[in-house]
């Protein structure tokens, strides 16, 4: 069960980070309101706080989180940007998630 909790926490963290970066993108590239920067800042603060909730070493969390971020970014590409992922996008996501699983759930010798 801790593995599922870790995955869910990583997923929510990735969504917070992507929203925090996507809203300024909308302002800068799409000419949307500057007011989008406020929820973007809140989302990035939430992202940082969520990363701090993991009970393991920060470096390990950051390394493993990257794999989940890649997968969530590809889902964002499909659901928000409306671009269907290629086979290679999906394969890369599987490889990244495999790396995350090895880093987070591999045996530890103390």
From TrEMBL:
Membrane topology according to the record: Multi-pass membrane protein
InterPro entries cross-referenced by the UniProt entry: EmrE-like, UPF0060
GO cellular component: plasma membrane
UniProt entry keywords in alphabetical sequence: Cell membrane, Membrane, Transmembrane, Transmembrane helix
Superkingdom as given in the UniProt entry: Bacteria
PANTHER family: UPF0060 MEMBRANE PROTEIN YNFA (PTHR36116)
HAMAP family in UniProt: UPF0060 (MF_00010)
The name this protein goes by in its record: Small multidrug resistance family-3 protein
């Amino acid at each position: 069960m801790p593995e599922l909790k870790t995955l869910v926490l990583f997923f929510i963290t990735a969504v917070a980070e992507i929203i925090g970066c996507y809203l300024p993108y909308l302002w800068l590239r799409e000419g949307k309101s500057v007011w989008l920067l406020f929820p973007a800042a809140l989302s990035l603060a939430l992202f940082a706080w969520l990363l701090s909730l993991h009970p393991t070493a920060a470096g390990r969390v950051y390394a493993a989180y990257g794999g989940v971020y890649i997968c969530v970014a590809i889902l964002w590409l499909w659901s928000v940007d409306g671009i269907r992922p290629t086979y290679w996008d999906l394969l890369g996501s599987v490889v990244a998630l495999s790396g995350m699983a090895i880093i987070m759930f591999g045996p530890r010798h103390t």
